[in-house]
Each structure stands twice: as structure tokens, then as C-alpha cells.
Amino acid sequence: MQKTTFKIAKMDCPSEEQMIRMKLNDLTNIKSLEFDIPNRQLTVFHTDNHDKILQRLDNLRFDTTLIDSVAEENFIISTDNTNHERKSLWIVLFINLFFFALEMTTGFISNSMGLVADSLDMFADSIVYGLALLAVGGTMTRKKNITKYAGYFQLTLAFFGLIEVIRRFVVNETVPAFKIMIIISILALIGNGLCLYVLQKSKSNEIHMQASMIFTSNDVIVNLGVILAGGLVYFTNSKYPDLIVGSIVFLIVGQGAFKILKLSK
Prior knowledge:
- By secondary structure, this protein is of the alpha+beta class.
- The chain folds into 2 domains: 2-71, Alpha-Beta Plaits; 82-263.
- 69% of the residues lie in helices and 11% in strands.
- It contains 8 helices and 4 strands, in the order βαββαβαααααα.
- The protein has helices at 14-24, 51-59, 82-110, 113-136, 140-170, 178-201, 207-236, 240-263; strands at residues 2-8, 30-36, 41-46, 64-71.
- Helix 3 (82-110) packs antiparallel against helix 6 (178-201), helix 4 (113-136) runs antiparallel to helix 7 and helix 5 (140-170) runs antiparallel to helix 8 (240-263).
């Protein structure tokens, strides 16, 4: 058994980790992958040499360099409780899908693009949780198909969302209902807090679980942004705080969609 460590300079978020997993998934000589995103390192336990692994990593253009490759005599395959991981991920997946539907609906009712954009952010997280579930188990073909369709769907929604924001900037629109914005965003904040609780309760050190926690933690910032926009709408009686926050979140969602689409290739 060989233990090979790579430095991957452009691996700075869970999306890159998922791309690497999918790129290496069909190499039968790989026995285990250990990701260290903060230090941007990947350790691979494998048989044979590391040439094919390095070639696959180079194809991703993440600026990969070999640190070292040594013999590993005491390698033990992890036997974590995957059923518990699945249960936790299914819970947070359904929570995010619920708030995706809730915020999308109330966003249109309240005339708030901030809520609509936040709903797409929830949808993006649902994709991440779905990919994490497939990381626990599932075939490569199914993973790529789900990723591709979800990525195109998310990109389409982000595109039309930005078009709608631009339209509302130039057309005289009704001021958003700030009370609905704030109340729904607070509920979404509670939902994200519940997701974090469920994920942390799983006590899993697996990277796909850690990645899910990172994404959910970032969502809290988005929720607070929409709450702030609702407050500014109230004090200024203006549509612009909502449109500015909506624009920012739509751009973030669109960028995430491109990353998700890369996973399907």
C-alpha cells in the first residue's frame, strides 16, 4: 500500500473536494482519500504507482504538486457508520428543500428578490447534501446525471433571477413586504441552525459531512443579510436594499451553479 500526499493550491472549498472525488472515483487502485481543505492537501492511499492519480488531478487544473509518496504498512479502511450519516444528510436535505419552496413562494408573494435569491441558495445546499449522500454510496453515472441536471436548473433560475432584479431596478415596483422578509428569513435561520445541530450531532469526521457543515454555516450569513435588507426596507421605504442583497445572492448562486456543472464532466 502506498500513501501519497498532494498539494492542491486551488482546493479551497467543498466544491473542489467533490470535483476531485468524482474525477478519481473510477480508479480501482485507490483505497481511501483524506482531504485537508484548510491546508489544501490530499492524501491518497492506493496500490501501484501514483502516475494516473496525478494525471487526473492535473486535468482539473487546480495547480497540483506531489509532496511525497511512501509505503504505508498499517493502513486500515475506515468503518464509520454510514447509515447514521445517511440519516443526518436526509434530514438536512429535506429541511433545505422545504425552505427552498417556502422562500421561493413567499418571495414572490412579498415582492422580495432577497427571499427568492435566498431560496436558490437553499436549493444549492440541497445539491451539496445530495452529492454528499451519493458520496456515502451510489454509482458514478447517477451522481453525474443528478449533478448535471441540478446545475443547469440552478443556473437557469439564477439567470432569470438576475434579469428580474435588473427589471425591478428600472421599473417602478412596489416596496417589498419587509415583515414577511424578516419573519421568513428568521425561520430559515432557525432551519439552518437545526441543520448544523443535526450535522454536528452525527460527529462524523468524513469530509463530505464537514463540507456540508461549511456550506450551512455560510448560509447563516445570507439569512442575516436578508434580515438586514428587510430592516433597511422598513427604515428607508425603498426597494433598493432588497434588490442589492438579491443581486449579490443571485451572483453567488450562479457561481455555485458553474462549479456544480464542472462536477458532472
